[in-house]
Amino acid sequence: MNTVTRQRVLSGMRPTGLLHLGHYHGVLKNWVNLQHEHECFFFIADWHALTTHYEDPRIIEQSVWDMVIDWLAAGISPGAAKIFIQSRVPEHAELHTLLSMITPLGWLERVPTYKDQQEKLKEKDLATYGFLGYPLLQSADILIYKAGLVPVGEDQVAHVELTREIARRFNHLYGREPGFEEKAEQACTKMGKKNARMFKELRRKYQEQGDQESLSVAHALLDSQQNISIGDKERLYGYLEGQGKIILPEPQSLLTPASKMPGLDGQKMSKSYANTIALRDKPDDITHKIRTMPTDPARVRRNDPGDPDKCPVWQFHLIYSDDGTRDWVQAGCRNAGIGCVECKQPIIDCVLKELKPIQERAREYENDMATVRSIVDEGNEAAREVARDTLDDVRKAMGIAYI
Ligand code: TRP
Ligand code: SF4
What we know:
403 residues; mainly alpha; Rossmann fold; Tyrosyl-Transfer RNA Synthetase; 3 domains; 6% strand; elongated; binds tryptophan; binds iron/sulfur cluster
């Protein structure tokens, strides 16, 4: 296994309503793939939802369970990934508080989403302490699991970048234990002579020539060591990169490709545009939604020729149809050989077929909330175990361990 496949993955979603096909084709399918290649933690960011919905928190609780059901129905497997609720792992809040001590105000004020969202959500008063701290809470979410990869959309990349800066600052301030160099040298010997020599050579190449390849080979070498304690590994990561001990490793964002799934009106599928197909919409409603989708405005009557490039239905064909069907649409639309109702039928069939197993699974979970709750309970516990360990390290590093 190489370094990339070993990294822990963490991502979260705010519970603000039912998930739709845009989420499925963008985020969820991606998570489903990741869960087989990595250790994954996926969580419901209920505190983050409260930063913007503190005045009407009632929707949060229902949305949390709906979201868990949608995730499970979409194929997130509790056997492969841990699913948990942020507020059930209160360690996130403690780390948030501790990190707040070292976070310059300017770093938070400069995060682009801070001003953007305040502008965009004018009807809400977001001049709150909690909202300013939104990205720092997110940093705590990520760092508490020492996650290596954070799958996020474009809009969240700045938050992962802030997280890296916070981690760097933390390690810089608290990673300098007395006798660091000697301890690192000592740890080196535990790899065996040959590996230790190789490690030092790679370290020299990286530090003297900035050779990235040497850095990643050295990382892989460290990752593969079975006889070195976690503390020593952290020391050696830091030694390798020319810092002190790395207590909180820097995560990387794993950019989720933008969903190609358009909304019913051809704009991006989004709840705020009221153009969605929810994963749990009834088949009749889905059929109706697609039948009433707008088409090329030039096709007023059945015999008016049209242009698929001007029609949102065509974008659905690009996602769902094979070449044969697409050729049929292109020809039939341009020469008025087919009607729009006919043209939409294969889409209706495909969407219903895609959603059928998802909806069946969702129904099973809806009727068995005990199972859903126990999946989340287990996820919460597994998450807490990791989170507690990290906090132990953090408290020690900050001098408040009292042991
Ligand atoms: N802010 C993220 C969003 O709105 C949700 C989130 C909270 C998150 N904490 C996270 C995502 C940690 C990734 C990692 O989509
Ligand atoms: Fe759109 Fe199909 Fe009608 Fe052409 S025939 S306008 S592609 S729905």
